[in-house]
Amino acid sequence: MQIRLFFFYSLVFVLIIILASVPTYIYLKRGIEKNALNTMNETVGNVAEKLDASLKEFDNISKQLYLSTDSNNRTVIQHLEILQNDKGSFDEIESVQAVYSLLGLVTSIYNDIHRLTIFTSRDAVYSNPKAQMPVAKAYPDSSELQEIRQSAGETVVRYADRDRWASSDASPVFSFSRLLNPRQDKIAVIEMQIRAGDMLPLDQIRSISGAVLALSDGDHVLFDSAAGNASQPQRNAYVFRKNIESANLTISLTVPRRVVLSELVLFRNFAVATLFVLVVFSLLVYYYLSRLLTQPLVKLKEAIDSIDLEDKKLNIDNKYKVNEIERINRSFRNMNSRLQHSLEQIVQFRMTQLQSQFDTLQAQINPHFLFNMLGIIQESAENGELPQVRTISRSLSEFMRYSISTDSPVTTLDTEVSFSMRYLELMKTRYMHRLTYSFDFDQNMLHMMVPKLIIQPLSENAINHGFAGIPHPLHIEATGRLVGEQWEIRFRDNGAGFGPERLEEVRFKVQKALEHLNSDFDTIKLGMGGMGLTSTIVRLKLMFRSKLQVEIGNHPDGGAEITMRGLING
């Protein structure tokens, strides 16, 4: 029977895991793949946008050569014509200055330009920054220069692994070139350079294993990030393309499928390993529990027989006439009667045990409070404030006498209120104007007997937690009223109040403590540091029993609020 149950449980458990894991894996696979594809598409789109913006920028600069005039009402094109024809004249000097002035102005406006160069058909070079190479060395491959000079004025985009006009700059660049006055004298060529790193996410592409970014002009490949790596064409790969129609340029990004889905593979392996461990652990636990629960009933009989109990018939269905069950029946009858006689003893023991815990807590007053008070006394004495030293010392002496006294666990509400006000007066010597308080209790309820230390712990909690994050002084307010035969004590502050999680935690802790009063009493632990809210409510509950009502929450105007109600006669 046990083996059948074990295998049945194992089969059901594995089936549930499979049914839950497969849809989850499919959902995550689609999500991860979609996110990865969107990221790659955005990368290609960003490159296309930057390239298109650079093309428009170059077109705008080219137009300025024809349209913008200087103080002599001449365009750059006209100045270039002067430089082409009038050698050694004053106009030639003005034209050189005009060309360089335009180059400097444009490069200062467009910060992404690495170099802006104009070189004439007679190989005169004007560049910003200044060119270090003549045209012949800048274009060692004459076919590339011929292609530009024989064009019809369209933009020619090329990639170079270094700045052709500099002798030491090895930064890869994209160049945008155009023939000026293509239908007349083809007077010069303008070339704009932009660093490749500013246009292409090269570091991002290199970080992706097997990824290849390419830029092509028709069938001519201008740039290939895998150039020199002898990479083979990817078969099982995603390819993302973006066309720039105005320049007949195409940007493509090729990424291996295994790279795109690498996160999914990692998650799958981790999930499989986790599920395997979970299944094995669960089966081992179930096997152990099944063995534990099917031990001979005689052991359970012996455990119950060890308790002194009185005979009382227990209605256990023993239709199969199992001897062990009959023995348990007789043992339980013995236990049941003894429990009835022991109830009053247990209640008294619980009261005694709680009082013992309370006495221990009284002996462990928060040392930080004492250190702070002694520090204030020392500082006042050093400043010669002897009246304040006497007042604080007297209040501290009365505070200690009351808090550590174990003569009786109960006192009058009047005494408890006076003690709490004395505590707050002591705390005002530390916080001064940042702490205020007001106590308003009905005179007819001040003679009521209550457990010791039920208001002071609430004041201490308010000070410890209420100052957090508030710009205004902390005000503590305690009121007491009689409504018919019922008393009500309301305690609140204007501090930080309970956060949602903290409020739920406090309510849960109080609820558990009250439940354990009638079950597992040993699990109740009174809180340290002012004994705490739980201790206050537990001791009030033992005194006023089921008539006690407690509400814990936040006041609508801000701050924490605690309300306690009970009958006057308990």
UniProtKB/TrEMBL annotation:
Keyword Cell membrane: yes
Keyword Membrane annotated: yes
Location(s), subcellular: Cell membrane
InterPro entries, per the entry: Bact_2-comp_sensor_kinase, HAMP_dom, HATPase_C_sf, HATPase_dom, Sig_transdc_His_kin_internal
Gene Ontology molecular function terms on file: phosphorelay sensor kinase activity
Bilayer-crossing regions: 6-28, 266-289
Main location: membrane
Domain of life: Bacteria
Protein name per the record: Histidine kinase
Membrane topology recorded in Swiss-Prot or TrEMBL: Multi-pass membrane protein
Limits of the HAMP domain: 291-344
One of the record's GO cellular component terms: plasma membrane
Entry keyword set: Cell membrane, Kinase, Membrane, Phosphoprotein, Transferase, Transmembrane, Transmembrane helix
